[in-house]
Design goal:
The chain is of the alpha/beta class. The protein has a single domain (about 5-295), classed as Class I glutamine amidotransferase (GATase) domain (Rossmann fold). It is about 30% helix and about 25% strand. The protein is built from 9 helices and 15 strands. The chain has helices spanning about 25-30, 40-45, 65-75, 95-105, 115-120, 125-135, 150, 195-205, 285-295; strands at about 5-10, 55, 80-85, 105-110, 140-145, 155-160, 170-175, 185, 210-215, 220-225, 225-230, 235-240, 265-270, 275, 280. It has a 9-stranded mixed β-sheet, sandwiched between helices. Strands 8-9-12-13 form a 4-stranded mixed β-sheet, covered by helices on one side. It has a two-stranded antiparallel sheet with strand order 6-7. A hairpin with a 4-residue loop joins β14 and β15. α4 (about 95-105) packs parallel to α6 (about 125-135). It is globular.
């Protein structure tokens, strides 16, 4: 399996878009954003002075408004080379103008909205193929996504489902995502909206996938397609089903309660590390690096 050279940044929603230089700009751009600067981390990971960033508003039903918000937020961080792609239909994803811009940008950000729109519009498009190619081959190429944009990154995607009805078979709807990363299932707005049951049901359905629940103003930086670092002010929940023993999900009828034995869970705060392949938690990057050095 090839190791991706690029980086993924998945954000749980309501992310801080940067610090505010004066009260006027704070009033203009403050929309449930906090003070730790996940967008600033995106800019840092691009490792380019005033990087080219494309904001992709496909998932949103108010694309112009959302695009303007991100342009304003990135400008606070000193990024003035930001454009917006309002890709609304599958045929838009094949337009030469968008493909050329994708070839030359330093990074992209999929906004929130409806993750099913991302899967339906990009599918196996040339746009998605080029995204995957650049992510696999180019060091420091960043694909970021917030809320729906984060959930769509995985091969198995949570399409929808009620949090209150979760853990009753069929309450969670699953579909194919963009396939940027395999063997994980990502959920967003996780802590405040109480989506624990939703992710547990998804992992119970696909126990070989790692469930990742992203809290608001919290995200993960994924490097080498494998190493997770928690960024932001809230929590990331990891659900690991590899050690499940009893699991009745294939036996019970739709709407019936699930029974799952020996599910493992980790709670990650800012700076904690999780290795997907090893399924191992580390308190920080230094601890993880020391183990790697010992292994070699």
């Amino acid at each position: 399996m090839t190791i991706p050279q690029g980086k993924l940044i998945a954000i749980g929603g309501n992310e801080d878009k940067g610090t505010y230089p004066n009260p006027k700009s704070m009033k203009k751009y403050y929309l449930d954003f906090f003070e730790l600067g996940i967008l600033k981390r995106i800019v840092t990971e691009l490792q380019v002075s005033n990087p080219r960033i494309e904001v992709i508003t496909t998932a949103s039903m108010i694309p112009e408004e959302v695009g303007d918000r991100y342009i304003g937020a990135f400008s606070i961080l000193g990024c003035t080379n930001v454009q917006v792609m309002h890709i609304r239909k599958p045929e838009d994803a094949s337009k030469p103008e968008y493909l050329e811009r994708l070839k030359t940008t330093d990074g992209i950000l999929f906004t929130g909205g409806d993750q099913s729109r991302l899967a339906d519009i990009y599918g196996e498009s040339e746009f998605l193929r080029l995204c995957r190619e650049r992510y696999q081959q180019e060091v420091n190429f960043v694909i970021a996504g917030t809320s729906a944009g984060a959930m769509a990154m995985s091969e198995i995607m949570i399409k929808g489902g009620s949090s209150t009805d979760a853990l009753k078979k069929g309450a969670v709807k699953l579909a194919r995502g963009l396939g940027l990363i395999k063997n994980v299932i990502i959920d967003s707005h996780f802590v405040k909206r109480g989506r624990f049951g939703r992710l547990i049901e998804a992992v119970g359905t696909y126990p070989k996938a790692i469930g990742i629940g992203l809290g608001e103003d919290t995200g993960i930086l994924i490097t080498k397609g494998n190493q997770i670092e928690t960024i932001g002010s809230n929590l990331v929940i990891i659900v690991d089903g590899h050690h499940i023993m009893h699991n009745n999900i294939k036996e019970v009828k739709k709407g019936m309660p699930l029974s799952i034995e020996n599910l493992m869970m980790h709670v990650l705060a800012k700076g904690n590390i999780y290795n997907i392949a090893e399924r191992t938690f580390y308190k920080d990057l230094d601890t993880h690096q020391k183990k790697e050095d010992i292994a070699y």
